[in-house]
Each structure stands twice: as structure tokens, then as C-alpha cells.
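Weekly structure sync, notes
Attendees: PL, DS, HV (note-taker this week)

Item 1: Contactin 6
DS walked through the input record. Source organism listed as Myotis myotis. Sequence as pasted into the shared doc:
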Amino acid sequence: MRLLWKLVILLPLITACAGDGPFSRPVFTQEPQDVTLPLASSQSEVTLRCAANGYPPPHFRWRQNGTDLDFSMSSHHRLDGGNLAISSPRWDQDTGTYQCLATNPLGTALSRKAKLQFAYIEDFETKTRSAVSVREGQGVVLLCGPPPHFGDLSYAWTFNDNPLHVQEDNRRFVSQETGNLYIAKVEPSDVGNYTCFVTNREARRSVRGPPTPLVQRPDGKGMGYLGGVLGRWLSLGGL
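Item 1 (cont.): predicted structure, written out as C-alpha cells:
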């Protein structure tokens, strides 16, 4: 029995001296990164990657929102080496924060937390937008007011029935922060209907708002009003 215990103690040392050691705690060589999927994604599987070195070689487990995943209870989650594979990811089940844990007898290393999220954009409300009135030579802003969404958006506007987007120049500017269209020194040719187009590339979807009429007020006493949101007069100069 004493000989057996000596072998148990000495065997790891012998193995280390043979070139597989020395002993070391787990150290990550790859940590999971944030992933954003389209809400209507048909993707069959998403993988969160994790890898670590250590001796003895570490084994891996994962947490979702702070709770350990049980790979024996469901085929929805699968451990592939250190990677976490999620089959047919769903917004209501898989959205959250994930963390990889690598463990060997010397300790446990915790990876950075990675988010799995789903990009979407809803439709605009169909409510008719009130006209925005402006006097010739003044500046005006048309509010886009994007619908609820998650993910980065890009904006464009169309004028009347022209399928081409309004081109930016020294009088027209589309803010990619808010989606608003700024027009400086309004001319009679600017009068018409403007429509905001919003694209969520991560969601792979574009939506269009209801048209906003821009009308000219010859008396100069106009007050812009857009979709129930108060407009404002701007002196934009050469914007």
C-alpha cells in the first residue's frame, strides 16, 4: 500500500520531468467574444469560442447569466473542446451573458463575459405625420424618429416618388446619429413629401416611415410639427 501511494505521488513528477510539465494553472489563449444575430435568423448553430493552456490540461464549463450550463440535460448546448455550441439559437432562450471556465487541479480561470444578443427593428407607426411648415430661405429639420430596435442603424431619405435617396450637399444633411434630415435655406423646389428609411444591417431589415409633408409658409409665421413632435426653426447657414 505504501508503495502504491509513492507511485501516486511520484507519477506526476516523473511525467513532468519527461517533458510534459511543469505544472501550471489554466491560462486563456482564446476568450469568447460578443455575438449579435438577426432576430429572424435561421442560423442552425452559433459557437462561442474558448481555449486555454495549462498542465494538467484544463477541462471546460460554461455559465449563462451566472448559472452553470448542464450539458447532460439538453442537446441545445454542446461542449466542443472548450467551445460552446448553441443549436438553433433563440431570442427568448439564449439571449444573455456567457462566461467560460477552465479548471485543472491548480485552479480555475474565468474568461471575459461575452454577450449573445439579437438585432431587430420594428415597423414605424402608421399614424399620419403632420406637415412641417417653413418660410423660403430658412432652415428646417425633419425628424425621423426610428422605431424600437436593437443594433446599429443607418438612415436615408427619399423625396416625393423618387426612389433615389436625397443626396447630401451644402444644403442637405442626414444625421447618422438621429436620422434627422436638415435642410438649409429652403427653396420652393424643396416643398414635397419626405420619407425616412431606416436600415438595421445586423437584423438584415429595412423599414420606411410615413411621409412627412414639407410646405412653404409665405407669411413666415409657420411652426413645424412632425408626427406630434414639435419641430423647430434652424438657421443652418451653409450646412
